[in-house]
Amino acid sequence: MAATPATAVLDAAGVSYRLHSYDHDPANTNYGAEASAALGIDPDQMFKTLVIDIGATRSELAVAVVPVSGQLGLKQFAAELGAKRAALAEAGLVTRTTGYILGGVSPLGQKVALPTLIDETAELWDTIFVSAGRRGMDIELAPADLARLTGARFADLAR
Questions:
Q1: pLDDT category, 57, cuts 50, 70, 90?
Q2: What is the pLDDT of residues 33-56, one digit of tens each?
Q3: pTM score
Q4: In this structure, is the dihedral angle defined by the CA atoms of residues 154, 73, 87 and 49, taken in order, positive or negative?
Q5: Phi/psi at 22 (nearest 5 deg)?
Q6: Which of 77, 132, 134, 153 has the fewest other C-beta atoms within 10 Å?
């Protein structure tokens, strides 16, 4: 499998991880659920990467990493970052900022380092799955490694 910016970060850091791939159906826009089902992974262990706009008067972006089995609590996320509001960022802005397309946004190797929070349930698992930066490709790694490489902290985000 070809390298992505996400795998390049892991390789450069010497972090242990496993790549998993599956055939992505271009008609499917429920990317996390598709990945979980295709790889036979518990949806609680498969995490989606969401880029969130927390800016009051202009775009200010941050990243939420939450299980595909749940939803991001936008109010919880905003409160964790001391913001007044939170909303999903516009798709074009996500791509320009991260370098990834929707459905392939990895928390690792983004063009611009963004403040990142990981749902605390990630710590219940020895490994979790996140996008490798391409639709149809996921990375399995330890939650602590993901937090360290993204400068993230764990918080109660999912509902």
A1: confident
A2: 999 999 999 999 999 999 999 998
A3: 0.95
A4: positive
A5: -155, 165
A6: 153
